[in-house]
Amino acid sequence: MSGGARSGPHVRGRETVTETTGPEPGPGYADYRIGDPLVDGKAPDGPIEERWARRRFEAKLVNPANRRKHTVIVVGTGLAGGAAGATLAEQGYRVVQFCYQDSPRRAHSIAAQGGINAAKNYRNDGDSVRRLFYDTVKGGDFRARESNVHRLAEVSVEIIDQCVAQGVPFAREYGGLLDTRSFGGVQVSRTFYARGQTGQQLLLGAYQALSRQIAAGNVEMRPRTEMLDLIVVDGRARGIVARDLVTGRIDTYFADAVVLATGGYGNVFYLSTNAKNSNATAIWRAHRRGAYFANPCFTQIHPTCIPRSGDHQSKLTLMSESLRNDGRIWVPKEPGDTRAPADIPEEERDYYLERIYPSFGNLVPRDIASRAAKNVCDEGRGVGPGGQGVYLDFADAIARLGRDAVEARYGNLFEMYQRITDEDPYRVPMRIYPAIHYTMGGLWVDYDLATTVPGLFAIGEANFSDHGANRLGASALMQGLADGYFVLPATLADFLARHPHDEVPADHPAVTDTVAEVTDRLYLLLSNNGDRSPDSFHRELGELLWDECGMARSETGLRKALERIPALRAEFWRRVRVPGSGASLNQSLEKANRIADYLELAELMCLDALHRAESCGGHFREESQTPDGEAARRDEEFSYAAAWEFTGPGTPPVLHREALEFSYVHPTQRSYA
Amino acid sequence: MKLTLRIWRQSGPEDPGALRTYEVDGITPEMSFLEMLDTLNEELIERGEEPVAFDHDCREGICGACGMVINGEPHGPDRTTTCQLHMRHFEDGATVDIEPWRAAAFPVVKDLVVDRSSFDRVIGSGGYITAPTGSAPEAHATPVPKAAADAAFEHAECIGCGACVAACPNGSAMLFTSAKVVHLNSLPQGAPERETRVLDMVETMDAEGFGGCTNTGMCTTVCPKGIPLSSISTMNREYLRALRKGA
C-alpha cells in the first residue's frame, strides 16, 4: 500500500540526460503471429439477467477502515474518469487523479451533444433492459460481448437517477417529468438530453462531485499533468510516469491500481471531432507495457459533421445525431447539379436514406448513414465545395412544428452551424459530411474492466468493451458513466482485496528504466534539429489513414498504408523540429510526443483492418459486401475480438482471439430497411 | 488576408512580458481565430522560434479552455468563444492586439495561458449537490417544474472560461459564481444545501482574490453563453436570505 509522488529530472537540454538510447522507429510489419486464444475469466455464467448481480456478490470487499490505505491512480477526468474518481473517493479510497487540461471540467466528454440512453421506458413505448441490450448488440454488428452489454443496459437506469440527484438539468415536460427523444438504430424514445449540451451537463455533474472530494482532501488532483508511461513492477501496474506540463518536471506516482480513463484515439486521423489535445499516449504506452489492444480498426465515422472548408482546418465539428429526428437528408438526383438547394424541385431530390431504409429512414445507425453519404458523393451527387457534402434539411420540420419549436430543440446547434459556415440553417439546408468521431477499439478488458496487466484497468472510451464494431448514438455517455460510477468501483475493490502487495522502492530498476525511457524520448524530440513541424507529420498521417483506413478499406489500400507508415515514422524521427525547452510549458513538445505514438498506433490499426477480411459495423472492407453494397459479416471466421500483444517496435504483434458467443441475440445480417 | 498581430509574449510568471509584433499572410475568412494562430505558429516553428502558447482544446465552444483578449475585448468582437470566432470578422490589413486574461486571480503561466484554478476551488467549496453514487432515488420521484428546470439549465451553461472576470474592471467572479449558485439553488435537489452553498462559495471567491461587483455588467456582455446579469442579483438575494437564516 503506497502512494504519492516522487520527483524526477527535468528535461532541459543535452546536459541533464544521461544516455541516449532512443526509440527504435522499427522497420514496420504487414504480418502477425497467432497466439493463444484469450478468455474472459471474470464473466459469470448463468442467466444473463443475473450475471452482474452474481459478480457483485462474489466480489470481495475492502473494509471501509482499510480503504484509505489504498491509493488508486485515475488518469483522465471525463465522464468515466470523473465519475470513477468521485465514487472511489466517496467510498474512502485515496485517489490521485490526472488530466492534461487546466481543469478537470474540460475533458472532451463535455462536447457530447445529443443525449444519454437509458432503459427507463418512461414513454411506455415498449422499451426495456432487454431491448436496450438487444439494440446495442445488434447495433454493434455482433462484435461485442453479451454479458457486458447486458450489464450496461441494466446500469443505464441507475445513471439517470444518479445524475438527476446531482442536479443535472435534463430537459423536462410541463408536468415536471423528464423528456426523451430518439436516436439512430432504435425505434423507441429512450434518449435523455439537456438541449444540445448533454455531455456538458453530465460532465459538470461528475466534475462537481469530484470537486467536492478534492476539497475534502480525498482526491489529490493533478491538472496540467500528462501521463507518459506506465510503471510495471513484477508484472503488476504500480504507477505512472507523468510530466508536469507547466514546469516540465517528470515525476513518478505510485499506487495500488492504475485506472486509465483517457478516452479514444480518434485524433490519430488528425481531423476528427475530438478535442485537439485528446490523445492515445496513455493507452499506447500501456499497450507497450503489456496491455493487449483490442479491435483497433473499429473506428466510428459520424455522418453529420460540418464539412471541411480548407487546408487550414484544425478539427471538425459535429452536428448532433439528434438533428436526424427532424432533419431530412438529401442530395440532387442528378450528378453535377450545382443549383442552389431552393432551386431544386422536390421531385429532383433524392431523400436517399428514406428511400433505401424506409423503416428507419433518417435514423439508421451511424455507420450506415456515413457510408450512404460517401456513396452518393462518390456518384458525383455531393453538394458544396468539392462535392463533399449532403443536405440536412429542416424546411419540413419548420413548416410542421414552427420555427420556435425547432429553435427550442436545436437552437444552440443551429447557432454553432451558422457561426462556422456563415449560413443560416433556418433558411438554407445544412451541409454535412462524415467525420471520425469515436473509437470502439481500445485496451482489451475483461468483465471486471481489467486489462491484461494486473492492476491496470481501462474505462470509458479507452477500453474496447461494449459497442462492438459500431456504437449507437447516446451510448458513449451511458458507457462512460456506467463504468465510472457503478462497474469499476465494484470490480476494483475485488482486485484490491485479493491482491495485497509491498511498496515499490523508488530505485527499483523497472521504475528508473521507465523514467529514463521517457526522458530520453523527450530529449530526442527536443534535440532533433529537423526541419518539419510536428503538425505536418500529423496531417500527413491523418490523410493517409482517412484514405486507406477510413470509411472504406481494401487490401490494396491497407498494404499501401502499412508500407507508408513505417517510412513516415522514420522520417518523423529524422526530421521533426521541436523548438523551446522541456523545462517549461512547451505545447510543441506535447504534440510531438503524442504524434510519435500515433505513428505506431496507426500501423496496428491498419494491420487489424487488413487481418479482419470481413465488413462489420464501422469497419467496411470493400471485398466483403452484399450485392446491394451493405456490410457483409463473416461470422464463421471473424466472430471474435482481436486482442493484439505488443512484441517490440516495428516487429509483428501477436494476435489473441477472444471468441464471442451469442446465446441471447442471434447474429443476423443487420437490416434497417 | 494579411494581418499584423501584436501578441503578448511572456516566458513565465516571473517574466514581465511584452507585446511583440508579427505579420501573417494567407489568412482566409473561413479560418477560426485559433487556426489563424496555428498558421502563425507553424511559421514560427519553421523559423526555429518558439510558438505562441495558448490554451485550447475542444475548438467547438464548449470546453472553456480558450480565451484571449482580442483588441481589448475578451473573446473578441463576436459574442462567442475565441475558438468559434472566425476571421471573417476582421478586415484585410488590420492590426490585431492579442493579450491574456488580465486578473489578479488568474496569474499568467506563459504567453496567453493563465491559471484559472481559482474557479475550481470556488466550485469545490459548494458548487455541487451532495449525492454519493448509488444513493439516488428514482429520477421521477421528484418532478421539477419546467420553469425551474429551464432556469437551472440556463445558468448551468457556463463553461468556466473566465471571460467575465477578464472583462470586469474589478476582476470580479460574481457572474461565474452566481451561475452555479442559481443553477443548483433553482432545483429541489439543491435545496438542502441552499444556504451553505452560497455562503461558502462567496467566501472562497473573495479569498481567491477576485474583486467585488459594482454592477458594471461587462461580464454578461462578453459571456459567450449568455449567462444573464440577473444571475448576480439572484445570488445576492440568496446570500442575504442565507445570512438572515443564520446558516
UniProtKB/TrEMBL annotation, chain A:
User: What EC number(s) is this enzyme filed under?
Assistant: 1.3.5.1
Keywords associated with the record: Cell membrane, Electron transport, FAD, Flavoprotein, Membrane, Oxidoreductase, Transport
State the name under which the record lists this protein.
succinate dehydrogenase
What Gene Ontology terms describe what this protein does at the molecular function level? electron transfer activity; flavin adenine dinucleotide binding; steroid dehydrogenase activity, acting on the CH-CH group of donors; succinate dehydrogenase (quinone) activity
* UniProt domain FAD-dependent oxidoreductase 2 FAD-binding: residue ranges: 72-477
Sorted alphabetically, which InterPro entries does this protein's record hold? Answer: FAD-dep_OxRdtase_2_FAD-bd, FAD/NAD-bd_sf, Fum_R/Succ_DH_flav-like_C_sf, Fum_Rdtase/Succ_DH_flav-like_C, SdhA/FrdA/AprA, Succ_DH/Fum_Rdt_flav_su, Succ_DH/fumarate_Rdtase_cat_sf
Pfam families, sorted: FAD_binding_2, Succ_DH_flav_C
Its placement in the membrane is given as:
Peripheral membrane protein
Q: Name one GO cellular component term.
A: plasma membrane
Cofactors per UniProt? FAD
Positions of region (Disordered): 1-46
From TrEMBL, chain B:
Q: Does the keyword Iron-sulfur apply?
A: yes
* Sequence ranges assigned to domain 4Fe-4S ferredoxin-type in this UniProt record: 149-179
Which keywords appear in this protein's UniProt record, sorted alphabetically? 2Fe-2S, 3Fe-4S, 4Fe-4S, Iron, Iron-sulfur, Metal-binding, Oxidoreductase, Tricarboxylic acid cycle
Q: Note the InterPro entries from the entry.
A: 2Fe-2S_ferredoxin-like_sf (IPR036010), 2Fe-2S_ferredoxin-type (IPR001041), 2Fe2S_fd_BS (IPR006058), 4Fe4S_Fe-S-bd (IPR017896), 4Fe4S_Fe_S_CS (IPR017900), Beta-grasp_dom_sf (IPR012675), Helical_ferredxn (IPR009051), SDH/FRD_Iron-Sulfur (IPR050573)
Superkingdom assignment:
Bacteria
Transmembrane annotation, as ranges: none
**What's the cofactor?**
[4Fe-4S] cluster; [2Fe-2S] cluster; [3Fe-4S] cluster
GO biological process: one example? tricarboxylic acid cycle
GO MF entry, a single one: 3 iron, 4 sulfur cluster binding
Q: What is its EC number?
A: 1.3.5.1
UniProt keyword Oxidoreductase, yes or no? yes
Annotated signal sequence range? none
Tell me its family: Belongs to the succinate dehydrogenase/fumarate reductase iron-sulfur protein family.
Protein name as catalogued = Fumarate reductase iron-sulfur subunit
